[in-house]
Amino acid sequence: MAHRIITRAVVLGIRGFSRAVAEAYRQASANSKYAQTAAGSSSSSSHNFVSSGLTLDEACKILNVKPPRAGEANLEDTIERFKRLFDLNDPTKGGSFYLQSKILRARERIELEVREAAEAAETDAEIKKGWRPKIYKDR
């Protein structure tokens, strides 16, 4: 009689565990599909910054600067606002570490956008100019 109770308990435990694993797999699959559609909806990496989850618009709102147009931004103004807000939110002075990290990520996001635009402009200029490798030093 005891072996039946133990067997039933083991079977029920395995059944519950397998259902939980199946549900977790379904949830992970749904999350993966959602992330793929979200990443696929933006045409380039400039609209979506996956590592920090901060978009360019959010970064500009945090630092209260205008978004860079065609890769040109007033980085001096951005750095100035970053330093001021970063210092105001210093945890040792009673500020918030969370806000300080958001401000840092916003600055990094804007700098990334400007850097990507500069690299794209440089590549376009090289393509227009033509690729001429220097094979010999004297030529």
Q: Could you characterize the architecture of this molecule?
A:
With 139 residues, this protein is mostly helical. 68% of the residues lie in helices and 0% in strands. The longest helix has 40 residues.
The helical percent reads 55-70%
Which series of helices and strands comes N to C?
HHHH
In whole angstroms, the N-to-C terminal distance is 95 Å
> Spans with pLDDT under 50 lasting ≥5 residues?
43-48
Largest sheet: none
- Structural category is mainly alpha
Strand runs, count: 0
Give the count of helical stretches. Answer: 4
Strand content: under 5%
Average pLDDT: 83
Instruction: Sum up the overall morphology in one term.
Output: elongated
Using only CA atoms, what is the Rg? 26 Å
Descriptive labels:
139 residues; mainly alpha; 0% strand; elongated
Helix-strand layout with pairing:
Blueprint: H1 2-41, H2 56-63, H3 75-88, H4 97-129
Helix pairs in contact: 2-4, 3-4
Précis, in short:
This protein has 139 residues and is an all-alpha fold. It starts with a helix and ends in a 10-residue tail after the last helix.
